Amino acid sequence: MEQYRYAELVDVVISSKMGLNPNRPVHLFGAGHPMILAFATLMGCDLFDSASYAKFAKDDRMMFIDGSFRLAEMQSLDCNCPACRGLTLEALKKTEKNARVRILAMHNLYAIRNELLLVKRYLREGRLWELAEMRCRAHPAMLDGLRRLREYQDYLERFDPISREGAIFYTGIETRGRPVFKRYADRIMSRYIPPTRKAAIFYGESQKPYSRAFPAEFANARRQGYTPVVISPFGPVPAELDEMYPLAQSLFPEIEDNDTTAESEELTLRFLEEKFDETVSGSELPETEPAPEETKVIEPPTGVVARKGEIFTDDPLDIQRALAVARYQFGLEAAEALFRGKIELRKSKKTGKIRNVISDGEHVLSMRAGDGLYTLRIEGAQRILAAVPAPHMRMAVTDDSVPFVSQGRNAMCQFTTACDPDLVPMDEVIVVDKDDRAVATGRMLLVADEIFSMKKGIAVKIRTGSEED
Ligand SMILES: [Zn+2]
Question: Are 148 and 12 within one domain?
Fold first, then answer.
């Protein structure tokens, strides 16, 4: 770190993390500069060395978030920490050596502490990528570290939550190295099935979701048998997926950069080639007579009570959207099991957003307004268990814990016997007993490797137990 070899530091840290027990905290020995703390935490380090604050002070050097500076070379002392407050640079320089070292050491400690507090806040908010990307701009060698980290996207993706609160902020081309981009690129290729084999391409990043930005254009394309696809910094976004995390929950600058545009175009070309027989530009399609835009409203399904401000529909466009999200989130086989027979949707009258999916009279899924992804109902879980072989979407628990979990208590690491290794944090999961029967549904808090190395702690936050009233 003293030689600014941050790219190699990434190799060392990630290679170590791959071999270490996730149950153990990781101490990054020698890291004591505030500028590295966010990035090191992002890589999975928990403890830091802090002897540097004193060494730097003895050397008349002050640590700041954007680097270390020699007192003799500084032009001003613009610091408000309790050690510097009220001091001018001249006064500090004239202070007797021992007293000065003490002030500088205190200042350095405050700089470290302030940054650690900030790292904790971003970590809690699920936004650590953003802070680390900002910090890595303090020095080109740190930017090298951030760029090297992208080579470990596969590994990092296994721990990256399927969704988070709040929008993703794009901070520069390195943002595309985040695991969330890779996951989207992988799933759009493997889990998306277009409703037609003809694509109409649209551009435009300013307004989201796209269906609300281009309602007439999309309708015109669909009337002529085209599937609307928007080119975005994530790559291609089929209209059916545009309300889903991370697509609608992301902010990009309006002025694009060449690298992101090139990467997005490359992915889009691959996508169009594989999924479609014909591609046109949406703006070049002839305009056709507008068909009625109103959503078709149906009676509530038998046994389902209509609530205020909601409608029911079996509109094919809405069903396409509902199905595309299910495929993306749960995989093709599971989505097929969930969308069996007669499909009816409960929608918000005001926002037009899908709320519930009712398949053959059973309420199997609920869509969340915030991230446009689903929560899985027990009825839906049972269908997946019947149709898709284990371990897909399952976590198995011991016989002893079945009575508790089926009553809605959280599933604990120490009582877990098996877990789908592809599940990531915040994924919907089906907790099963040893005979693969549904005990509960909930959300993953950890991944399989972590669950099996933890001696205690919550593995799955249970939403509904099978025996709950
Ligand atoms: Zn200070």
Answer: yes
For residues 116 and 51, state if they share a domain: yes
Pair (131, 177) in one structural domain: no
pLDDT of 220 higher than 90: yes
CATH number for 199: 3.40.50.10630
Asked whether the predicted pLDDT for residue 342 surpasses 70, the reply is: yes
Q: Tally the domains of the chain.
A: 4
Contact 149, 10 (CB under 8 A): yes
**7-64: pLDDT as tens digits:** 999 999 999 999 999 999 999 998 889 999 999 999 999 999 878 899 999 999 999 9
Centre of ligand 1 to C-alpha 38, Å, is: 20
Do both 31 and 125 map to the same domain? yes
Task: Note every long-range contact of 396-402, with CB atoms under 8 Å and residues 24 or more positions apart, other chains counting.
Answer: 396/431, 396/432, 396/433, 396/434, 396/436, 397/431, 397/432, 397/433, 397/439, 399/433, 399/434, 402/433, 402/439
Q: Which residues surround ligand 1, an ion (CB under 5 A)?
A: 79, 81, 84, 107
Ligand 1 centroid to residue 121 C-alpha, Å: 21
Q: Which of 157, 191, 219 is the last residue of a domain?
A: 157
Q: How far is the CA of 76 from the centre of ligand 1 (A)?
A: 12
Distance 25 CA to ligand 1 centre (A): 30
For residues 58 and 176, membership in a common domain is answered with no
Distance 314 CA to ligand 1 centre (A): 64
Ligand 1 centre to CA of 123 (Å) is 25
81 CA to centre of ligand 1 in angstroms: 4
What is the structure's pLDDT at 208?
80
- Residues linked to residue 302 through DSSP beta bridges, in sequence order: none
Same domain as 443, residue 342: no
Instruction: Establish if 14 belongs to a structural domain.
Output: yes
Same domain for 35 and 133, yes or no, is yes
Q: What is the Å distance from ligand 1's center to 9 Cα? A: 28
Q: Which of 53, 72, 55, 73 is nearest to 63 (CA)?
A: 53
Q: Which domain holds residue 11?
A: 6-157
* Per-residue pLDDT at 319: 96
User: How far does the centroid of ligand 1 lie from the alpha carbon of residue 61, in Å?
Assistant: 11
Mean pLDDT calculated for residue range 157-186:
94
